[in-house]
From TrEMBL, chain A:
Top-rank lineage group of the source organism: Bacteria
Keywords linked to the UniProt accession: Signal, Transport
Signal peptide coordinates: 1-39
Pfam families associated with the record: SBP_bac_1
Native source organism of the sequence: Streptomyces ureilyticus
Matches recorded under SUPFAM superfamilies: Periplasmic binding protein-like II
Protein name, UniProt field: Extracellular solute-binding protein
Record-linked PANTHER family: ARABINOSE-BINDING PROTEIN-RELATED, SN-GLYCEROL-3-PHOSPHATE-BINDING PERIPLASMIC PROTEIN UGPB
Membership in a protein family: Belongs to the bacterial solute-binding protein 1 family.
TrEMBL record, chain B:
Family label: Belongs to the binding-protein-dependent transport system permease family.
Native species: Streptomyces ureilyticus
Subcellular location: Cell membrane
InterPro entries: ABC_transporter_permease, MetI-like, MetI-like_sf
Keywords assigned: Cell membrane, Membrane, Transmembrane, Transmembrane helix, Transport
Gene3D superfamilies: MetI-like (1.10.3720.10)
Keyword Glycosyltransferase: no
Protein name: Sugar ABC transporter permease
Signal peptide feature range: none
UniProt domain ABC transmembrane type-1: residue ranges: 101-317
Keyword Cell membrane recorded: yes
Entry membrane topology: Multi-pass membrane protein
Length: 449, 335
């Protein structure tokens, strides 16, 4: 039955019209969604970068426009937003990522662009000038460190090294660690116990902090330092019950139990080591060379700060891996790949790369830029010497493509506090971790295919 | 004439309506159907933005989430599949789900009554004649306008074991520092954060209190009723619709609280899982499943189950309070 002209719309018709309006609205919203690439006003190319806001400052955006004629639009890094953008086929042109963890994950899911052809023809980023740390961004379908390059690190550190404050060592009467020979993890923990300062139940100075860039990657590296591997050969399973993994777990649980440093059961009010160490409220920080960028800005702290080699387990191999390798990758569906590559070259090989190298925020990933690392002051020279010696022990500890780093950290975060509080034995902890992580990895493997 | 009734257009008996040569009805002399149509059109015009928004931003995402809940979609991997009710079956045997739901329920049944009592108590206090009453009302309401993220930061700093002011005060009295943000104390910090913002409930209760006819109180006083009796037998019954509203909205908000995440040392997808167990409530579990584990399908199933449970809980609250809530008008009366 048709309504006669002038009659009010029926409820049914009104809802139908509203649904139509909603559909039109959805289309309009979709049209209004962030355009990720294309020509910018004025004829220059436009590239969208999803990065942390301090990775690419507004000044750097202006500099890019001036130097390479590319307009950069910054989108704050957010994994949920990235997934939404990837899902709707409208990803950013360049995305921030941790080579050590993100490279295999995104490459295995076929969303990252193989950059080998770009590197092959680049005059700025020559393959023989790339530091081996960039191998973190390689993945051959099974193993990290081999195969095509899916990204590049902006700088890197050997994250198992640690900084220490000599003033706290002097006060506690603890010998300084050697610049060349690593101490053992057990010695590190003993030192931390002697260095920690407490008053009325409050920790006023942490003896040391050793949390890595996340517990998943930390245990991967600690297990490797104990002479084993956390992952099976095909990276489809973990084994926390192996003697090496148990050794790693036992050491870390002891570290947390003694409450000498921040952990899940004793969170750092500053959220991370940097501000706490620079405020002289931490005697040792398990952070690599990159923290020097922050330390150098505080001359008083810099003068009493030294960098020490990565600890070893008694009888274990000497390895010093990079746990991060923060850099960028290009989504396969990026709209403006050539302009994105131009930005990539500029960011990793030209003015911004030189500025980063001079600042001491990590080791430059181009060998040709490593001579720019700060060495004017005596303390900088000393740090640089230790770092250069440590480079001989650099290695890539491969990570699995079947689980996100957030996922493995999430599972560990949920189970390990009970062990830290003494309610769970390390054996039980290892068993539970195996069960939960392997279940998640099984799902991941099915989804990758 | 009741509100919403359409006024009748007066018609002069025996006088034909004046129709122009074109046949159109002159303005001011509109037929009743045309006026009704205009009113309906106006109604639909004014409500359509909301209806469209509701369809676009509520029904659409809910339908999408429902579809996702039948899949293993993780947002990025190519080989996700349809699993029917598999996620719902898994949910039934997932102890983390039930534990987190239990904690959320416990939080709701403690925080909602406590905050209503606190808010109503404050409302009674600031409804009395006192000096600088406006200032008191403003001061008590202020915490409620602090954004939750700000409130989270404040409480995180206040209760930090090593640098928080709370332990500083305890130290003055010779009491050793307490790890407030860890188990088993973390749950009390959340409760305090909720009570701190009871100003919202105070304002609504205050509006309700001011609507209570003064003569009822005067009559009770003349009859010799005590202040408590007056409060219990007059104030509370007349405030009961307001209290019911606060109980329902409070329950819905508290089972979905994200305050534990704001108090976490690391408010990121993986950081959410480092929240102490006593504060690991349902929405934390949902957040972790979605964004830390990348299980969009399972996370969506969790959300749908929560939605249904909230509907049931709301229905039960209405059912069990129907006899005790006092309405000035009969809500069941035919319009």
């Amino acid at each position: 039955m048709h309504a006669h002209p002038g009659a009010p719309p029926s409820r049914r018709r009104f809802l139908a019209l509203a649904a139509g309006g909603a559909a039109a609205g959805a289309a309009a919203l979709s049209g209004c969604a962030l355009s990720t690439a294309g020509a910018a006003p004025g004829g220059s190319e436009s590239v969208t970068m999803m990065v942390n806001l301090d990775d690419v400052s507004p000044e750097l955006v202006k500099q890019a426009q001036k130097e390479i004629g590319v307009k950069i639009t910054i989108v704050a890094y957010d994994i949920t937003r990235l997934i939404a953008m990837l899902t709707n086929g409208n990803p950013p042109d360049l995305v921030r990522g941790l080579g050590a963890l993100d490279a295999p994950y995104f490459a295995a899911r076929d969303v990252a662009e193989n950059l080998d052809p770009y590197f092959a023809k680049s005059t700025v980023l020559k393959v023989d000038d790339l530091d081996p740390a960039n191998d973190l961004w390689r993945f051959d379908g099974t193993t990290q460190g081999k195969g095509p390059r899916y990204g590049m690190a902006k700088d890197f550190s050997q994250d198992a090294m640690f900084w220490y404050n000599t003033a706290h060592f002097d006060k506690a009467g603890v010998d300084y660690p050697s610049d060349t020979d690593p101490i053992t993890y057990e010695e590190w923990l003993d030192n931390a116990k002697r260095l920690v300062q407490r008053k009325n139940g409050q920790t006023t100075v942490y003896g040391g902090s050793y949390n890595g860039l996340g517990l998943g990657i930390l245990f991967t590296n600690l297990t490797a330092a104990a002479g084993g591997s956390l992952f099976s050969d095909d990276f489809s399973r973990v084994d926390f019950t192996s003697p090496e993994a148990r050794r790693a777990l036992t050491w870390y649980v002891d570290y947390a139990k003694t409450r000498v440093g921040p952990s899940l059961i004793q969170p750092n009010p500053d959220a991370w080591d940097g501000p706490t160490y620079v405020a002289s409220r931490m005697a040792m920080s398990g952070s690599g060379y990159w923290l020097g960028g922050m330390i150098n800005a505080e001359a008083k702290v810099a003068e009493v700060s030294r960098l020490a080699p990565a600890p070893v387990f008694e009888g274990g191999p000497r390895i010093s891996a990079c746990q991060g390798g923060t850099g960028m990758w290009m989504p396969k569906k990026a709209r403006n790949k050539d302009a994105a590559w131009r930005v990539f070259e500029w960011f990793f090989g030209e003015a911004p790369a030189k500025a980063r190298a001079e600042g001491g925020w990590g080791i430059p990933t181009l060998k040709s830029l490593q001579s720019l690392m700060p060495d004017k002051e005596d303390y900088q020279k000393r740090v640089l010497e230790v770092q250069r010696a440590e480079l001989k022990h650099f290695s890539v500890t491969p990570f699995t493509p079947y689980i996100k780093t957030e996922a493995i950290d999430a599972i560990i975060n949920q189970i390990i506090p009970a062990a830290m509080n003494g309610q769970l034995s390390v054996d039980t902890l290892a068993g539970r971790l195996n069960s939960s992580v392997n279940e998640q990895m099984k799902r991941g493997k099915e989804q990758v295919g | 004439m009741t509100v919403g009734q359409i006024p009748e257009i007066p018609q002069v008996t025996g006088q034909p309506r004046k129709v122009a040569r074109t046949g159109a009805v002159r303005s001011g002399d509109l037929p009743r159907t045309s006026m009704t149509a205009r009113r309906h059109r106006a109604f639909y015009m004014f409500t359509s933005p909301w209806i469209i928004g509701f369809l676009l931003l509520t029904i659409g995402p809910m339908a999408y989430a429902l579809w996702l809940s039948f899949t293993t979609f993780d947002g990025i991997s190519p080989n996700w599949k349809y699993v029917g009710f598999g996620n719902y079956q898994e949910l039934l045997s997932d102890s983390v789900t039930w534990d987190s739901l239990g904690r959320a329920g416990l939080f709701a049944i403690t925080s909602v009554p406590l905050s209503i009592i606190a808010g109503m108590g404050l409302a009674v206090l600031v409804n009395r004649p006192l000096k600088a009453r406006g200032l008191w009302r403003t001061l008590l309401y202020l915490p409620a306008v602090v954004p939750p993220v700000g409130a989270g930061l404040i409480f995180k700093q206040l209760f930090n074991r090593d640098s928080g002011a709370t332990n500083g005060v305890l130290n003055i009295f010779g009491i050793d520092a307490i790890a407030w943000l860890d188990d088993p104390y973390a749950r009390y910090v959340i409760l305090m954060a909720v009570l701190w913002a009871a100003g919202n409930i105070m304002i609504i209760s205050l509006a309700g209190l001011q609507d209570v006819p003064r003569e009822l109180h005067e009559a009770a006083r003349i009859d010799g009723a005590s202040a408590w009796r007056t409060f219990r037998s007059i104030t509370v019954p007349l405030l009961s619709p307001v209290l019911l509203f606060q109980a329902v909205t409070g329950m819905i908000a508290s089972v979905q609280t994200i305050m534990p995440m704001l108090l976490a040392a690391d408010a990121s997808p993986k950081g959410v899982t480092s929240i102490p167990q006593s504060n690991y409530m349902y929405m934390m579990h949902v957040f972790a499943e979605y964004f830390a584990l990348g299980r969009y399908g399972y996370g969506s199933a969790l959300l749908w189950v929560l939605f249904v449970l909230i509907l049931i809980a709301t229905g039960l609250i209405f059912k069990f309070t129907s006899g005790v809530v006092f309405y000035n008008v009969d809500p069941e009366a035919k319009k």
